[in-house]
Amino acid sequence: MTIAFAPSRRAFVQASGATALVLGVHIPLGNRGKAVAAEAAFTPNAFVQIGADNTITVVCKHIEFGQGPYTGVATILADELDADWNQIRVVSAPADVEKYANSAFGVQGTGGSTAMANSWDQLRTAGAEARARLIAAAAAAWNVGAGEITIDNGVLKHSDGKSGTFGEFVDGATRVTLTAPATPKTKDAYRYIGKHVPKVDTVSKTNGTAQYTIDVKLPDMLTCVIARPPRFAGKAKSFDASGALTIKGVKEVFTVPQGVAVLATGYWPARKGMEALKVEWDESGTEGRGTEGLMQEFKKLADDKGVVARNDGDIDGALSGAATIIEATYTFPYLAHAPMEPNDCVIRRTADGGVEMLFGSQMPTVDQASAAKVLGLDPKKVSITTLLAGGSFGRRATPSGDMAIEAADVLKAAKHQGPIKVIWTREDDIKGGRYRPVFVHKLKGGVDKDGKIVAWQQVIVGQSFMKGSPFESAMLKDGVDVTMVEGAATLPYQIPNLEVSAHIVEVGVPTLWWRSVGSTHTAYSTETFLDELAALSGTDPLEIRRQLLAKHPRHLGVLNLAAEKAGWGSSLPDGKARGIAVHESFKSFVAQVVEVSLGEDGLPKVERVVCAVDCGIAINPEIIKAQMEGGIGYGLSGSLYGAVDLDNGVVRQSNFHDYRVLRINEMPTVEVYIVPSEEKPTGVGEPGVPPIAPAVANAWAKLTGQRIHDLPFSRFVPNA
Amino acid sequence: MTVKITVNGRAEAVEAELDTPLLWVIRDELGLTGTKFGCGVAQCGACTVFVNGQPRRSCVTPIGTIPDADITTIEGVSDKVAKAVQAAWTEIDVPQCGYCQSGQIMSAIALLSEIDKPSDRDIDLAMNGNVCRCCTYHRIRAAIHDASKRMEG
Ligand code: FES
Ligand code: FES
């Protein structure tokens, strides 16, 4: 099976109904020959096309940047069709909100770990329809009843021995009318769902042929690198390009709203040109505070109740009546996503007066509209070809379409009329904002004389990236940004008096969702504070969770499975301790048990992680496991080392040497267990992240007695 | 300036300023895009290629410092070790976003060419210069051990 980035123009147009420009067929492709679909084709709906050459092309409306949706959609459709796995190829959907909206947000986009949840019913129905029509066509051709025909590994068969391929019936299938709606298979008939299938994109990602935005080559294309202001939202007042223009390969230099753009024949001259610029910045109105000051301001706010997001029982009464009260203040830094491929976008003019953008567009509807606005075009004149992206973790889904706007601004201002590839440097990426916001949490908890938890009060302070975004009306409820409090306001523990409130603070630092969003901080504060409260009565961390989750069977399911597989309660060698955490995010449930020792550098060394996940029906168990492994590593990276700090509004870090990320020697062994489930599939891209940091902190507290309230962990080890 | 190098067995005469990193010669001049840019400062390993048989970070290797060098990129690896590594990577489905994987595979080939049965510690030492933000490290380790077994056959 292959991923076809560029099927024949005709095939794609049929499959998508989009304009012919969508196709980026000029991208050099290793497997292009194979990707060309046959002339005749059966296109029952917007998601599947079967060619006379027997290829099945699946149109994926979710971007592939490692979480596996290409393989996921292929699995669902191949299963419904009983296809041969080798018949299937996957193409990315063009920007077309009518056909390819994500039902979770109404726009076309990938996020919130929704890809499989959103495709499950849609693609099973699409596959069932295609299957029924192929069978009806074969039945008509063979003059037999449809009920007598079966499909096995891509071959239609009749009991009297007749057989045929899908390709033979594409014509007939196009013409037949179905008398009844097609119903998807029942699970006893699954062929690929729940089994291990090879990922469709693996081979191209092991031989260097996978094509990312940075790899796009077009005739007459120039590369753009931008000199950016030291403080967010600064503007170039004036610049001196005399040095830059002497560099061989530099073609033009001009201002754009983002800074000063240098166009050159390749990245190296563009970057050198950028470094040779002398720019005077207008910094009026930019953010001048530093992170330390911000934390102090946030902490002061956290002393007072914010806008209430949840209020059960009588928190004030419960706190005043409690036998023991403890308090903790937590701080969480700005975090860069730092995907391996920095932001980039290729843009070019098209023959019809529009533009085409080729890039890892995570929200095509938004990107299309944003670029169209800059260029004064009808959005229909902006086509988007979504390419593989080298990671995102939230970074490529900007509600304001930043990257598309930037590329459009460059195109608009350039004298050069050919294609332009805008590339961010790693320094741009680390310094460029759109961070997980800084948060301060203040928790106060009370237990009665028997040690029972009777009061839980949590105040959360931070920036809202929903405010002012197109998602504001959906995500800001009664003055509370639900993404700031998710995981806290939804605390599942049975505590009679519980209050969660939040303060939204305005800071001139652009922020964004970061893999698992609110749960990046709420899982940490709630799951470690629960351990602190349990410790007051000497209750075992697993036991307290079991007691307080009696009404939450799916939480309990993962908790018990992880505990059992990890051997919770069994003895460990000296110098090692276990910690546990459980958290629901994006409708999936994950529990992790970790084993931690003291590392040579003074930081926790995470040796083993046992992870249990309940994400409904497991479509691709291997991908689920890989996402848990990756989520654990990503969460560990952020909590051990991750921090972007500002001094007077200027970002201190710049690249991987000072924005430290997890490396192979720091990766624990990970065991993943999947809870069998009949529930509809839910996401796995994010839910592996939240439990890891609190589980490590809980183990660390057991090992050393030290409770970590300020992330990252490296803050308390000076030379780590 | 014209610099002569051999890339994947082909003699090339490239027109480039001498300070141009090998990475950008490979990508922008020769059009071989399997080798990736991740940091530009020898911190991530995405740009790893072989220069005269040794793994090098091409982002910090000015072309002027390696005249007449023999270079191998991900597109040019084909020996027994490379085949074992690529087969293991595929079998274990290592890549997620895939962007770091050319560099990972080049480093793994270098390791296994040197030590055919690496320990976990050998793997840590040889591979900790290669960042994977998708954190496929767990599978990279398994795939290196798997490739080592494949090389026996
Ligand atoms: S790009 Fe060369 S080490 Fe990162
Ligand atoms: S697979 Fe994505 S960075 Fe390694």
- Structural class by sheet pairing and helices of chain A: alpha+beta
End-to-end gap of chain A: 45 Å
Radius of gyration of chain A, in angstroms, nearest whole number: 27 Å
Biggest chain pair contact, residues each? A-B, 65 and 56 residues
Count of discrete domains of chain A: 3
Class of secondary structure makeup of chain B = alpha+beta
Give the strand order, joined by hyphens, for the main sheet of chain A.
11-12-9-19-16-17-18
Poorly predicted regions of chain B? none
The figure for the number of domains of chain B is 2
Number of strands of chain B: 5
Q: Average pLDDT across residues of chain B?
A: 97
Distance separating the two termini of chain B: 47 Å
**CATH architectural arrangement of the largest domain in chain B:** Roll
The biggest beta sheet of chain A reads: 7 strands, mixed
Fraction in helix of chain B: 25-40%
Q: What's the CATH topology name of the largest domain in chain B?
A: Ubiquitin-like (UB roll)
Q: CATH first level of the largest domain in chain A: which class?
A: Alpha Beta
Unreliable spans of chain A: 1-38
Topology:
The complex is a heterodimer of chains A (720) and B (153).
Chain A (H helix, E strand, L loop, with lengths): L1 E2 L5 H8 L15 H4 L5 E5 L2 E4 L4 E5 L8 H13 L6 E5 L4 H4 L14 H28 L6 E4 L2 E4 L4 E3 L4 H6 L46 E6 L7 E6 L1 H4 L4 E7 L2 E6 L2 H10 L1 E5 L8 H12 L4 E6 L2 H7 L2 E9 L11 E6 L5 E5 L4 H12 L6 E5 L15 H12 L6 E4 L2 H6 L7 E9 L5 E10 L9 H4 E2 L2 E2 H4 L11 E8 L14 H18 L4 H8 L4 H14 L9 E10 L2 E11 L5 E11 L6 H20 L5 E2 L2 E2 L17 E6 L17 H13 L16
Parallel strand pairs in A: 1-5, 4-5, 9-19, 17-18, 21-24, 27-30
Antiparallel strand pairs in A: 2-3, 3-4, 6-7, 7-8, 9-12, 10-13, 11-12, 14-24, 15-20, 16-17, 16-19, 20-21, 22-23, 25-26, 26-27, 28-29
Chain B lengths: L1 E6 L2 E6 L6 H8 L18 E4 L2 E4 L12 E3 L7 H12 L9 H14 L5 H8 L9 H16 L1
Parallel strand pairs in B: 1-5
Antiparallel strand pairs in B: 1-2, 3-4, 3-5
Helix pairs in contact in B: 2-3, 2-5, 3-4
The complex binds FE2/S2 (inorganic) cluster (2 copies).
